[in-house]
Amino acid sequence: MSLLDDVLSHNERFVSERQGRIKRAPQKKVAVFTCMDTRLVDFLEPAMGIQRGDAMVIKNAGSAVLDPNGGVIRSLTVAIHALGCDELFVIGHLDCGMVDLDVEQVEADMLKRGVPAEAIGALKPDLAEWFGGFRDVYANVRRVTQLLRDNPLITKDVPVHGMMFDPATGGLEMLEAGYP
Ligand code: ZN
């Protein structure tokens, strides 16, 4: 049985057991920007007391913001100005894969699997910067928190908090509280 079959047959059972609908707008009026790490799935939200329907959760590799008008900012702008979020959390985590991303190894894998060298060469300004890896996960959270606070699309009435999450214990460490 393939993973796809597995997902589809699980879904059939899942749908038959569901009941009730919940609202689209985030009930806690909060948006969380964090990493796509597997250990955060179904773990960070319960660790924050956030349930389905409460929050908008935006994820990418390393909870990094590389483009001031890119996808993360676009999603947060929608969360605030279309869906009523009035508080943001930037949450990095310990043991993040973007800290020790081996760009040479990734590039070798891409080439081996047929990604054209020109496509890699076209990434700006280069592959390493395009991936946006970092050495210090704490510094990344502080940097992203400040970037969001300084972004003109994110209005000053929206507090932006920076936190560190431990995917082993579920503990949150406060780094930058967004309240005045
Ligand atoms: Zn991560």
Can you give a write-up of this model?
This protein is an alpha/beta fold and 180 residues long. The chain has 2 domains: 118 residues, Carbonic anhydrase (Beta-carbonic Anhydrase, Chain A); 34 residues, no CATH class. Helix content is 36%, strand content 17%. A 5-stranded mixed beta sheet has the order 2-1-3-4-5. The termini are far apart. The model has no long low-confidence stretch (mean pLDDT 96). Bound molecules: zinc ion. The site of zinc ion has 7 residues, from loops. The site of zinc ion (ZN) has 7 residues, from loops.
Short structural description:
This protein has 180 residues and is α/β, with parallel strands linked by helices. It is built from seven helices and five strands; from the N terminus they run αβαβαβααααββ. It has a five-stranded mixed sheet.
Biggest sheet descriptor: 5 strands, mixed
Name the CATH class of the largest domain.
Alpha Beta
Output the helix-strand order: HEHEHEHHHHEE
**Tally of individual domains:** 2
